[in-house]
Model the fold of this input.
Amino acid sequence: MNLTQTRPAADAVAKDGRGKFPKHKLEELRGRGYVMFCVLLLIVIIFSIVYFIASRGLTPFVSQGVSVGEMLGGLKWSPEADTPRFGALPFLFGSFATSLLAAIIAAPLGICAAIFMTEMMPKVGKNILQPAIELLAGVPSVVYGFVGLSVVVPFLRDVFPGQGVGILAGGIVLSVMILPTITTVATDALRSLPAGLKEGSYALGATRWQTISRLVIPTTLPSLMTGVVLGIARAFGEALAVQMVIGNAPHIPHSLTQSAATLTSIITLSMGNTTSGSLHNNALWSLALILLIMTFLFVFVVRLLERRVKHA
Amino acid sequence: MKTKSVDRIMTGVIVGVGFLIIALLAALLGYLLIRGLGHVSWHFLTSPPESIRAGGGIGPQLFNSLFLLVLTMIITVPLGLGAGIYMSEYAKQNRLTAFIRLIVEVLSSFPSIVVGLFGLLVIVNRFGLGLSLMSGALALTVFNLPLMVRITEQALRAVPREQKEAGLALGLSRWRTITTVMLPISLPAIVTGTILAAGRVFGEAAALLFTAGMSSPRLDFTDWNPLHHTSPLNPFRPAETLAVHIWKVNSEGLAPDAAQIAAGASAVLIITVLVFNLGARWLGRVLYRKLTAGR
Amino acid sequence: MKKSLLVLTTLALSISLAACGKNNNANNANAGASSGASSSAPASAAVSGAFSAAGSTALQPLVDQASKKFMDLNKDVTITVNGGGSGAGLSQVSEGTVQIGNSDVFAEEKLKDADADKAKELVDHQVAVVSIAAVSNKDVGVDNLTKAQLVDIFTGKVTNWKDVGGKDQKIVLVNRPASSGTRATFENFALGAKSEDLPDSITEDASGTVRKLVSETPGAIGYLALSYLDDTIQALKYEGVEPTAENVASGTYPVWAYEHMYTKGQPEGAVKAFLDYMLSDEIQNTDVKDLGYIPVSDMKVTRDVEGKVSNK
Done:
């Protein structure tokens, strides 16, 4: 907004200085060139990532006789068999199920935490809860996986039938990992709500919960959803922590506590064991390509939600 | 009356959740620290790891983590600042800007394993950097750059308009105004954001498995010439970071005290992240006070 | 104190190495002795240079340990040892990014079909023998399984321990990914057939994780290299034969494979010196045994790529 307003002033300065201050002009040019270079680099990075992953990931479809339909819809993954099969549907299912489950657990918690910090106890929120949540974000995923394997899996094994590993274990571990993302976005959204709106509601005699449930949450809903989608995106791409607790059987499980697999867990399990250029290896790159495409989809969804924020 | 009690119940629920999260974190921290701290000692922090015998430490890994962080920051900060300045000050409201914004968003949500694989394919193999600190730093740059861009952009946008216009009115070029007026004002926010982003680098493992490698060759801590093979400062040597070490010890560790090493290393990692977080807040406050007191 | 011990061992090492070097390859062993005797002596090593090895994570500790000793003896040599997996090791050595590719399997098994030519360029150096034992949770009530029973368990025909003479306890499979060298060895020499990834089975690549899961999950069965055996799990006899180094060496316990270090073409200079050092008694009789491998020289039988066993 303020950009467009200041631009004429800046241009005027630049025009004035053309003859008198060539040094300034040069400086400006150099600065502008530098920032342009930085932005160009960003563009180059993303295009090269897409290009290189796609060049490997498309090989099985283009020249090694695997069909896209089999990859996306097939149920059998046996890459080292005599007639290898590359059905990645169980992994797609596993990835979606774990990240959705994580979101289902983490979203209410994160949104409650955000309300707690902004509406209930801002002091405790700012001094204890917020640093605590930032710390959660900084805990390395390897450590989460380790705690998951040592605490969550044995607990689930004792409580539910099955071996403890599976989508439920993965979802629980991931929910803790994405809690910071959801909370941070939700807190920002709630803070940006004009104070007048809430005051008006209180003035009308509404209780705090009425204000929160009828006014605050509905107005900020698209932003809250943005946080949830970003959380799902993070959960979708998480690798090491999930691999340690999910069990990695290449099948669609019948229950939440049965061994399952995700796209990322299969990639980390087998990437190092296969030689580059082999069909199995290239198929793993295809899985990475699917992950990449999913990232684009998630960003697209976030975009749609943000557009709704702007219109609201 | 009914709405009052509903209000009370819901308030209770939300406050309960708030404290539940705090309790959860306390339990997580307590679990990791209690299991790990017993094993942490000066010897543990400084000695090299052992592959077979007990008594190995995490000295090189700790150093590698910090050094990799510094390397990453050296690459990321200038680039991120530049792109952030562009986005907040130079970008016009058009398709291109919207596109760049999309790119920043996509980059920041790329799965780390995809970035790691890209690093393996391009940085490690094609550029021929091999499994090295430099490869690791470049891969981490891919994550950190969008974060840096966003932090810089937000910080610059928060600068009061009057300050900026004052600079321009004095006849300073736009670039001059940005570097001498706006950047100093937004410095506290940028520093805090950068350090918080750095904490994430510290814990990253998936991308580094494929780029910085899993070995820690012999290091000679008396040789500080970055060009020597055994110098700790050589950026082209392979290096295992703390997070990767935890992964390796957990998965293939043969030393009899592998479990304790992993627990101890986790505790050290957590404490480091904690120090980073607290440090970021403290530094941000100090900078803010310094810069505002002078005016 | 620790340091002086280290110097002492190094000294002892280099002297013994010099002694055996006389009738061995004079080139490398003498070099080791002259430069390694003490750090104050002028370094006049005949071998120098930097090279790297990568590949099998199972072999990494051994090569890592040997490389440290070798570098202590030859100050001008820098060796970096990386993991990454057998497949990655073979790819990298054939691409020339590393000089030594560590592998749990014969290169011909990984580089096949279109890549078969690449395997021909690689020179095999068998540096140790690794043996793999079926392991189970301690409370299954069985300590011996026949080949047929193992096949039934790993193909899902038998799902309860009571059917193989144990307790009434469901069997939980802890398998390795299809690309794993450990799994290939187990399938080839213990089962004699490829096994399927069954639903409800757990798949983990890392030996540490497999051990943890087998020790904690009731009714679990998996397989581990001998070096990972400890008292948290139970090693199962195979056809009545205990998995021990002696039984492997004599050829009575059949589930074993070579650990390979591949070079592209015949090795030269420092690489050759290092590979000779790997096969010297200095490593074979100490570290190889400490790490639970069996020295190649102890083996009374040999095995070729096709798996044919013959007496030496």
The two ends of chain B are 54 Å apart (CA to CA).
